[in-house]
Specification:
alpha+beta; 3-stranded antiparallel sheet; 19% helix
């Protein structure tokens, strides 16, 4: 059975601890590609906050913390390798950025179909480790949102 095309509206959730450690997860379909939690709306009317929590729970097992909509969005060209997941002719996605603050020691349980491993990195190192420029830029925004991160 074919899946319906993905909706070209998504969330990016930067999961971090108060000390500036950022969670990155490695894609199962592209080993070596590290990222924050991302995911598309399940339905056109799904609220972005609901999408953010759903994706965090599905991809990491995390269900607690303080989620904040950063009020940022990025429009980017969908990588050609993933365009087949969208309706014909769809070439761009709008990504909405959220931050999720979690307690140190928060357990991470990955969905092995989606991700191979995870790691916590200092925020600047995490930004350098991301394959996606918009993901790296989002991580570099941590100090802008008044979060206590080491500079």
């Amino acid at each position: 059975m074919n899946k319906p095309p993905k909706i070209p509206v998504s969330v990016l959730v930067v999961i971090h601890q108060p000390d500036g450690q950022v969670l990155l997860i490695e894609r199962a379909d592209r080993p070596g590609y590290w990222q924050s939690v991302t995911g598309s709306l399940d339905a056109p009317d799904e609220p972005l906050l609901q999408t953010a929590w759903r994706e965090v729970a599905e991809e990491t097992g995390i269900t607690a913390g303080t989620m904040r909509d950063w009020g940022l969005s990025n429009v980017y060209e969908i990588y050609p390798t993933w365009r087949h997941r969208y309706a014909p002719g769809v070439t761009h996605n709008t990504e909405h950025v959220f931050g999720l603050t979690v307690a140190p020691g928060t357990a991470v349980t990955l969905n092995p179909r989606e991700h191979l491993q995870h790691r916590w990195l200092p925020w600047r190192a995490a930004a350098d480790h991301c394959f996606s420029p918009s993901n790296a830029e989002a991580i570099l925004q941590l100090p802008r949102f008044g979060l206590e991160v080491p500079r």
